[in-house]
Amino acid sequence: MSEGLLLKALIILFISASVVGALARLKLPSPIGYLVSGLLIGPYGLQLLTTSAEIDFLSNLGIVFLMFIVGLELSIPATSGPRRNFLLGGSLQVGLTALLIFAGAILYGSSPIDAILLGGAGALSSVIIVMKQLANQNEISREHGQIALNILTFQSMTLIPFVAIIGAFEQAGGFDPVTLLRHVLIATAAFLLVLALCRLALRPTLTFIAQRNLTDLFLPLVLLFAMTTAVATHFAQLAPPISAYLSGMTGGESDAEHRIENSFRPFRDTMLGLFFLAMGMKIDPSVIQTFPQSVLEWTSALIVGKTVVLLFVGAMMHWPPIVAARVAVILSHGGGLSLLLLTEGMRTNAIPPDAGQPALMAVAITMLLGSILIRENRSVAKIIDRQSSRLK
Questions:
Q1: Residue 213: is it exposed, middle or buried by C-beta count within 10 angstroms (0-12/13-18/19+)?
Q2: Using an 8 Å Cβ cutoff, are 271 and 62 in contact?
Q3: Distance CA 322, CA 378 (A)
Q4: What is the spatial distance between Cα 85 and Cα 78, in angstroms, rounded to a whole number?
Q5: CA pair distance 206, 40, nearest whole angstrom
Q6: Per-residue pLDDT tens digits for 186-197
Q7: Confidence of residue 338 (pLDDT cuts 50, 70, 90)
Q8: How far is CA 138 from the centre of its chain?
Q9: How far apart are CA 364 and CA 320, in angstroms?
């Protein structure tokens, strides 16, 4: 190993540790630190790392395990409270937010496929940040925490059609309704096949291992199954992150959920750091100077727009006003899945850089603001509730 490469690796580790540590002192979650670190060391920052096949491979690997974690921690049986919060509340939040952003993007001259993907990215929130913050604040079991997790679970499932649209666009080299329909049908069939395989093979195997207390087998078996289904579905033209999500969701449905989480935790933190580091490397901070209005509009659309949408959804769902306000504050930001949709869209040219980069920067900004809002959600919700009462 050359001395230059070793020195560069040392500098990268030092920057990452310093940024994550500094933000931790401010009570900000580690994903934000890794995102900022990637921005600093990437091709748009100090250029210590440049985009390469190896970096893309590690990024894709991080995406697969991110989706596995999302599926594991947000499996459908893990949701509590009325199912209408998951189905109706989630569909209203995602549908209304995506529709509003779609309409705004069309007014600004975006193509339909571009506007659909931008709307999908804007509708999603950060699973990792919300769960970490709420767990640290002992709010997951509270009513607003459970409603937020129900909606996050629905959000994660809606990623599937958006990823299928990107795959169809890449395969056809543009917007082709026939190719899109064929790709969605193939993706749906592969989705159902992987789901059946996960439930028929993985869940009984995990239960068998748990009953015999073979804890050392959990991590290698789960990783093997996640990667196997990811490779298999890749050949079926279904994005690997979707199969990883299904594998995680099946693990979350098994009796061994907590043992899987305990075995996976050290590996999980490493892969999450890698994912957000890679995402940070793809953000161009110069868009703040080049397209300041677009970044500001995107940031406002996410923070203010999603808050208003969720307050409206809360009124329709008859949630208590203060609970609706707290849910709105908690979910009023973008997240890792938003970054995934935007970067994949730009990679396949489904989203032009002029539209994608300002949205990417705004998502990163709202993740930072969102972690603060989640921490102060009670105080902010009281202000919103008080102002809402005055308006009424």
A1: exposed
A2: yes
A3: 9
A4: 13
A5: 41
A6: 766 766 776 677
A7: very high
A8: 22
A9: 31
